[in-house]
Design brief:
Elements (H helix, E strand, L loop, with lengths): L7 E8 L6 H11 L3 E13 L2 E7 L2 H12 L5 E5 L5 H13 L4 E6 L17 H8 L5 E2 L3 H8 L8 H12 L7 E3 L10 E8 L2 E8 L9 H14 L4 H19 L29
Parallel strand pairs: 1-2, 1-4, 4-5, 5-6
Antiparallel strand pairs: 2-3, 7-8, 8-9
Helix pairs in contact: 1-7, 2-3, 3-4, 7-8
């Protein structure tokens, strides 16, 4: 087929009907950054800006059918995985990622364990499956600090960046390939900034950003991981994609200040400066 290739990003995550998190937030982010966004749904949720009241995982066969249909049509895809809901659906995702590996350019996984309001979205029994079998298939995994502590069994108190570097980084450092982005928003406020750690087999790189005072923080983890996915799809290397994604999220948070989106934690302003759909220089950026 003749024509110009565009960057394609696929979200595999839950559906938040309020639009602040999950596949809707992911596709908004892809689109705002100039990528073609698509989605496969792992679970239906009943939630709004005040909290989550119900989660209904999609049947594994339905999820697999969604993904196989997508990959039968698209190639050069950059995948973002969010809430997986059940061990059965983790297994489906791993099987599909392996089966269609030749059509996949990168995989970013945000291990969503709880909503902004605190509702649990992932059972502890699923953690070993994620850590031992799904993570090795990923380009990047993006847990916040409480999620990372659950995943890697860190029980030490983490108050400042030096605590993270000393206690958590050695536990989560990949042996080879892949990377982990430890999101430091739960650390003590140091000069009105927060620090994230990009951990690879070769070392770690710190990213410091200003804290934005706004009520509209629903789906920030989804938005950040989707932004990394989009910047990878646009041809940036991983550290650069992380840095650009953090800048995008900071500005989306800033642009949401003073806006009323629901009665609770509203969404960030994904479209504060939207880009048109980009054209790739080649089919494999």
């Amino acid at each position: 087929m003749s024509g110009k290739p565009v960057p394609v990003c696929l979200s595999i995550a839950g559906l938040d009907p309020s639009g602040g998190a999950g596949v809707l937030a992911d596709v908004k982010t892809f689109s705002a950054l100039g990528c073609y966004g698509a989605a496969a749904v792992t679970a239906l949720t009943a939630q709004n800006t005040l909290g989550v009241s119900g989660v209904w995982p999609v049947e594994p066969g339905v999820l697999e059918a969604q993904l196989d249909a997508f990959f039968a049509d698209f190639t050069g895809v950059h995948v973002k995985v969010g809430m997986v809901a059940t061990p059965e659906n983790v297994t489906v995702i791993m099987r599909v990622l392996t089966r269609h590996a030749g059509r996949i350019a990168s995989v970013v996984y945000d291990p969503v364990m709880a909503s902004t309001s605190g509702a649990s979205l992932l059972t502890s029994s699923t953690l070993p499956l994620l850590r031992d079998r799904l993570f090795p298939l990923c380009t990047l995994v993006t847990p916040n600090l409480p999620e990372a502590c659950r995943l890697w069994g860190c029980t030490a108190p983490l108050r400042v960046p030096d605590d993270v570097r000393r206690e958590l980084v050695p536990l989560c450092r990949p042996e080879s390939g892949g990377a982990v982005l430890l999101k430091g928003g739960h650390l003590a406020d140091e000069g009105n900034t927060s620090t994230d750690f990009l951990v690879t087999a070769d070392g770690e790189r710190l990213f410091t950003s200003p804290r934005v005072r706004t009520q509209n923080t629903h789906g920030t983890g989804c938005t950040l991981s989707s932004a990394v996915t989009a910047f990878l799809a646009l041809g940036h290397c991983l550290p650069e994609a992380v840095g650009r994604a953090k800048d995008y999220l900071t500005q989306a948070l800033e642009a949401s200040r003073g806006l009323v989106v629901g009665a609770g934690h509203g969404a960030v302003n994904h479209f504060y400066a939207p880009r048109p759909l980009q054209v790739l220089r080649s089919e494999t950026p």
